[in-house]
Amino acid sequence: MKKRIFSGAQPTGSLHIGNYLGALKNWVALQDEYEAFYCIVNLHAITLPQDPKTLRQKTLDLARIYLAAGVDPEKSTIFIQSDVPEHAELTWVLSCITRMGELERMTQFKDKGKENTERAGVGLFTYPVLMAADILLYQTDLVPVGQDQKQHLELTRDLAERFNRDFGETFKIPEPYIPKAGASIKSLQDPSKKMSKSDDNPNGSIFLLDDADAITKKIKRAVTDSGTDITFDESRPAITNLLTIYQLLTGKSREDCVEHFAGKGYGHFKAELAEAAVEFLRPFQERVNEYDDASLNTILKNGAEKASAVAAFTLDQVYKRTGIK
Ligand code: ATP
Ligand code: LTN
């Protein structure tokens, strides 16, 4: 039996190369070796206000992005979270064993709820419990995510252990999969912040659907550090970030990248990086419209059926163990 993977992304904003290099790229690389479930987490999306007219469209667009990135529907299960109601049902049960203090410690809540927690939605606060339900329903072994999700994964493990202890062995304890390179791609405008879909400044991110002109301009405007060397160096986070992007897009080793740019200036480096990004994204952008609506809907319907079978089995056990059934 193959081990299982679960991961997901929210159908909000536009996906950027941080999402690709931190998560999607690994989803694709792992799908041969594992039985993979890749979810479009639309219930997570409404933890912040969304325009109802565009949410559905964005949900389908994200499915197209998974496919264009190389997630193969013959190998992996691609589905929409709300098509499998067990996600919401298990969230309720898990929320009854989650402590307020645990959720209060989540740094993403502190960031997204800003200082005004009095007005923040309760869904934003309990969002990590929904994420735990996503993962635990599938008896997941491995969860490929970016560094920003590590804390949510630790909570998921804690909840699974607590449930197993109190009600008997039910959930597998999942492991995070967060390779160091790419785990946190930084904003091109501020290397102390991660590249983020919710950043107000679009110049900080290279979006997967940006055209060649936008990519080149954004890289040209990217902030750099003092000094001139093009090397990986933690004390020079801007260049390290750009060089990491170059390394991951070209598939070269760190040493080869450093050697390649030895003696070259920032201008030269940025021009090559822009070219590498444009070349990398071109075939991806061509594939984004490969599936018509009918075939996309079939993929998602089949995905939901496969996911439901696994999820229903786990939820049934949970209900039996807790005396609900
Ligand atoms: P935002 O960019 O607004 O913070 P998000 O993290 O909420 O978006 P999702 O679409 O849910 O966005 O994220 C999908 C995946 O991308 C997650 O596994 C997340 O850890 C990863 N990810 C997001 N930003 C980065 C980044 N800058 N570097 C590496 N991985 C990232
Ligand atoms: N919380 C994640 C998205 C997400 C997820 C998941 C990732 C929801 N459920 C389950 C991995 C596994 C985010 O905001 N990036």
Q: Topology of this structure?
A:
Elements: E1 4-9, H1 17-30, E2 35-40, H2 42-45, H3 52-69, E3 77-80, H4 86-95, H5 100-104, H6 107-112, H7 122-137, E4 142-144, H8 150-167, E5 175-177, H9 212-221, H10 237-250, H11 254-260, H12 266-287, H13 293-322
Parallel strand pairs: 1-2, 2-3, 4-5
The protein binds adenosine-5'-triphosphate and L-tryptophanamide.
Structure write-up:
The chain is mainly α and 325 residues long. It has 2 domains: 4-178 and 292-322, HUPs (Rossmann fold); 202-287, Tyrosyl-Transfer RNA Synthetase, CATH 1.10.240. Helices cover 54% and strands 7% of the residues. It contains 13 helices and 5 strands. The protein has a 3-stranded parallel β-sheet. Strand 4 (142-144), helix 8 (150-167) and strand 5 (175-177) form a beta-alpha-beta unit. Helix 3 packs across helix 12, helix 4 (86-95) runs parallel beside helix 13 and helix 10 packs across helix 12 (266-287). The longest helix has 30 residues, at 293-322. The mean pLDDT is 96. Bound molecules: adenosine-5'-triphosphate and L-tryptophanamide. The site of adenosine-5'-triphosphate has 19 residues, from helix 1. L-tryptophanamide is lined by residues 6-10, 41, 44, 131, 134-135, 143, 145, 149, 152.
